[in-house]
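Archive entry. Fields below.
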Amino acid sequence: KQEVTQIPAALSVPEGENLVLNCSFTDSAIYNLQWFRQDPGKGLTSLLLIQSSQREQTSGRLNASLDKSSGRSTLYIAASQPGDSATYLCAATLVDSWGKLQFGAGTQVVVTP
Amino acid sequence: GAGVSQTPSNKVTEKGKYVELRCDPISGHTALYWYRQSLGQGPEFLIYFQGTGAADDSGLPNDRFFAVRPEGSVSTLKIQRTERGDSAVYLCASSQGALAYNEQFFGPGTRLTVL
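PREDICTED_STRUCTURE:
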């Protein structure tokens, strides 16, 4: 069974610092890995999706890397802003799983002004 | 265009009652997923529809839970004889097709509270 782990569970940084969020998974037979943002009481907003054949994806200040062999993905957020405060979740899609996502528990991020 | 919508946004019910939760996927999306998220946890898969049929219902916790998608668009998650442990946020997601690498788009969720 795929296990997805996110460490740390919570993170607080001053505005302007770079954020590094970690995600690890136990089964390397994945189709892709997706990063989401969740604001309190809200649904999930997709940030980046990395296919298994890719090493990284970038969107604006966000960059996500994927290393299947070590079972790790990292989300980098450059020059953090208070508006980046949210919970960030990673989710893996296993091969032969009909696309269902296996989520980590998330990292709660607070960016202080 | 419109995103995934879910109704109601909040539902409070008493133990033992029956509830229905509705999901309207993005127009044209053939794949639809239901997930359940408990406090402090990531969402857990419940059921997957491709078109009108449930291709994978392995995540449904027991036979009190049932979901339908009769016309291949709107889906309804039905919970019978609700229990306090069913309290959670129920999330719906849709994607363009059956391919596992298609990006999933989530609705805002329905927060279910069973008293």
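CURATOR_NOTE: The longest strand of chain A covers residues 30-38.
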